[in-house]
Amino acid sequence: xxxxxxxxxxxxxxxxxxxxAGRAVLGEDAARRFLGDRSALLGLGIVxxxxxxxxxxxAVIPHDPNVSxxxxxxxxxxxxxxxxxxxxxxxxxxxxxxxxRLAHGARLSLAxxxxxxxxxxxxxxxxxxxAGMAAGTRADALDGALMRLVDxxxxxxxxxxxxxxxxAVGRADVxxxxxxxxxxxxxxxxxxxxxxxxxxxxxxFVASARALGAGPLHIVRRHVLPNVGGTxxxxxxxxxxxxxxxEAALGYLGVGAQPPTATWGRMLHEAEPYLGxxxxxxxxxGFAIVLAVLGFHRASEGLRDALDPAGAAxxxxxxxxxxxxxxxxxxxxxxxGSAGGVRAPLGxxxxxxxxxRGGTLRLATTVNARALDPAIAYDExxxxxxxxxxxxxxxxxxxxxxxxxxxxxxxxxxxxxxYVFTLREGVRFHDGAELRAADVKRSIERTLHxxxxxxxxxxxxxxxxxxxxxAGAAPHLAGVRVLGDHAVAIDxxxxxxxxxxxxxxxxxxxxxxxxxxxxxxxxxxxxxxxxPFRVARWDQDGSIGLARHEGYFRPGLPxxxxxxxxTGVRATTQRYKFEQGELDVLRxxxxxxxxxYRAAPGWEGQRRWVTRNRTNAVFLxxxxxxxxxxxxxxxxxFALDPTVLEKVRPDLLALDRVLPPSIxxxxxxxxxxxxxxxxxLAQMAEAGYPYDPATGKGGYPGVxxxxxxxxxxxxxIGEIVQQQLARIGLRVRLRLVSWATYLAEASRRRAVPMxxxxxxxxxxxxxxxxxxTLSTRAxxxxxxxxxxxxxxxxxxxxxxAAHAEQDGARRLALYDRAERIVRDRAPWVPTYTARQLxxxxxxxxxxxxAAALTxxxxxxxxxxxxxxxxGGGPRAAAPRTATPLxxxxxxxxxxx
Length: 896
Prior knowledge:
Elements: H1 3-26, H2 28-35, H3 38-60, H4 98-134, H5 140-154, H6 158-169, H7 174-182, H8 187-201, H9 204-211, H10 216-252, H11 264-271, H12 280-307, H13 322-336, E1 360-364, H14 380-389, E2 394-396, E3 402-404, E4 407-413, E5 418-423, H15 437-448, H16 466-470, E6 480-482, E7 487-491, H17 499-503, E8 533-539, E9 543-548, E10 562-566, H18 571-579, E11 585-586, H19 591-599, E12 607-611, E13 614-620, H20 630-639, H21 645-648, E14 652-654, H22 677-686, E15 691-692, E16 697-698, E17 703-708, H23 713-726, E18 731-736, H24 739-746, E19 754-760, H25 767-774, H26 793-804, H27 808-825, E20 828-840, E21 844-845, E22 861-862, H28 864-869, H29 884-890
Parallel strand pairs: 1-10, 17-18, 17-19
Antiparallel strand pairs: 2-3, 4-5, 5-7, 6-7, 8-9, 9-10, 11-20, 12-20, 13-19, 13-20, 14-20, 15-16, 21-22
Helix pairs in contact: 1-2, 2-12, 3-4, 3-12, 4-5, 4-7, 4-8, 4-10, 5-8, 6-10, 8-10, 10-11, 10-12, 11-12, 12-13, 20-22, 25-26, 26-27
């Protein structure tokens, strides 16, 4: 007998068995009516095909749904790899096979739906039968109480109710999701079964059974359940579709099964940002959900009509399957859509010309400024604005070196313990007052005053007299001395190489005499400094307007008349404002848009990457097993390969050391750390946990929790860490918690074994990264900034020596030694730093020269001829090469 014949024989046998089962539950007449309903059979066929896909798909698809294939590359639009011979549907955002995840998601989604349906139907049957049997008897109060409970639950919108419970429970395992759905979806079945039971209880054959002495349990078993079985089957069928929808809603909202587990709802959630560039990522799980719901719905309608032929509508077998046709058409449209390209720059190639004064530069940002006073402002936007409004004694040049600004000379004496700043003469504040040395002392004391809630005050504890003054025990800061009208001396308790970098922060910027001696955060004075621009207007929820400071001390600067910032504008909105000519410079881009602009040749010369002063790493708690063993930590360091992160997002830059490239540090001639899987396996064997990748045997016996914040880039990186450590026998389980819980637990001693850590340097100096995060002084039982709880005497001595060292070359050599200590003892495994793509139209000149300092807009000027060629403002929408659908999809990409 051939395989085809055997399959046909098995199919016929299965059909006959199903027919017998249907007749047993529904009865001969109802079963015959159901089998004659083409619409119901179509629905049943859809459910059967999905079940077959869920059962067989994971076994025959040759890809692990949780393993990324980083041999592939993203396309030019920034989308994950598309369909190919190896990956029929392409890959998801983490380069995992989409078809494999769809099959495994089908298995889990259907299993959860059917199991929760069984639980809900069983519970509904129990409550309904109990209430129906109690109705009209001495236990009638029980019927009333149960039905009032059902009424209350039914009054709540089901999906909203389930989602609220899911959010309250938080992320959970499959069993918890099953219970949440099952224990909230029983009410409909309970009401129907109660009515059916109450009706049956009045029938003559039940009265006869009672007369013959039959008890309630016997009546339920012999007379009630057989007569409500068909109704329960119909209710369960429609409930299964609702459960699939509910599980998908939980997964989409991020409160379903834990990643990297694939469910259809979770896949929709992960694919949402890529709707504009890879619609198939959304279409595949979305169509599967729609198909399953429609299949169960058609089958349930068929069962309903078969059981109640008097209430059936016209024969549905003759109707076109309009719902399926619409769903299929939507799938085809989404699958065939793709994003249009980016528009060309406005204004064309500018001709060489001398800077011209005038014009307003228009920018936007996603955030709002909480404060603009330099003593208390510390968020990103406030710091950027402060760079333009408040000049400092010293600043950074484009090469990353400290250079005088308001000071024209700096003299260092007493072995690095005294700094004398000689001020420029004739410098004017925005209010017209002349800058004098007394203003510098007053401004410093204003920031460090005990009544000023400055977040940066503690960083200046190296100044003599800081402790007494900040505690309110001294009226003035003894370490700041006025040496005449244009010279001020600052005395330190000990030599400190971080002092000058700290003087570049806005906290130390001189402010106008009218700004007062302290700052009230609730009602700060108007911002007033000596920078190139003054604050003309500030709407805390809308915009910031800066105007040229006509008395700025640098001749001819600034070139611009004004700068207009729109605040609180979404990144996607900024992109389209920029392309329409409503913005001149664009800084906030989604990763997808950044990839599209990077790939567009027309923007060459009008874009640049700006690396942030931020380090991201995997911390390993050196006080908890197994990371209390050096060999295990070194194994992790060798096993992790951060270079793959650059494929996940174009705005990531892999790190092999603690310091990001934006912070001046030791030479980077050779990699500090390299991915080496054989050495990682050797370290595991040395630790006593040998692992054989071929058989999967061995490794660390326990499961290690990795803490991260859900629905963030760090969660996605955690899933990659999970894959890479599995190759050396370390089983990692993601523990996703809220941001507040993350901060509390990661900083608590002996609480978290490993996880993500990120650190933003306060100023571009190595001490601003190493000392707050990896020194022994940073360890606390609660609120520790050293999440690895790593204490090493050699590292502490090295950091202390570097902190005081005045010679630049010797200081960098010490930080090179610190890098090697961290590499060899592995409390951290640095992974990546973020970078920002900046774009500007060709008529914006002088912007390309400030790559190290994004806020040097006082050197920017607008080319009037190039701007006139661009239309001088918003341009009319030009037709794109993409179809209207593609244009719609292109605007659907959301930032993540």
